Amino acid sequence: MTVERWIDLSCHPSTRTVTVRAIQVLVRRSASAELDLTFRLDGDIPQILIPTPSAPRINTELWRHTCFEAFIALDGQQSYHEFNFAPSGEWCVYALSGYRKGGPVADETMRPHIAVRSTDSRLELDAVIRLNSLSAIHPRAALRIGLSAVIEASNGLSYWALRHRTDKPDFHDADGFALLLEPPGSEG
Known about the structure:
Layout: E1 3-11, E2 20-29, E3 34-43, E4 67-74, E5 80-85, E6 91-98, E7 101-104, E8 113-118, E9 122-130, E10 143-153, E11 156-161, E12 179-181
Antiparallel strand pairs: 1-2, 1-11, 2-3, 3-9, 4-5, 4-10, 5-6, 6-7, 8-9, 10-11, 10-12
């Protein structure tokens, strides 16, 4: 069985933009230990600065430009992983023991599969994360998920997330890990 739902992201009030109309994320958690994410950005795509496609590779500081992100924590735990997905195909995974405590993991076995589609009014990025690459526990545990995006447009950066709790955008705030995903088969 697959758990699947569309989630709306909201723009942080300090970074309003007219270039992006909406960002939604389709979240699918399958019994095969994969977390599939489809980020759908609706807006004036020619005005958005999209990194040039390249070979999939690890690269840090992707969040300085157009980038989609997923934060994954075991429910009830302070440690978490941060995944960055760039439309270029570049990616990065960070392992953190608590709020912003940790760094990038240079491990190709954690590489997500990324695919991108674009028109003048929509950009979609698919990312597939193998939960068993995080730990043996992740595939069968309840997960707290944070979803976010940094969008670089000709008129500046905007920050999008499930929930904003502070005056400045802060995707690492655990309150933003607002989506609880139970393991497949536990939905009652």
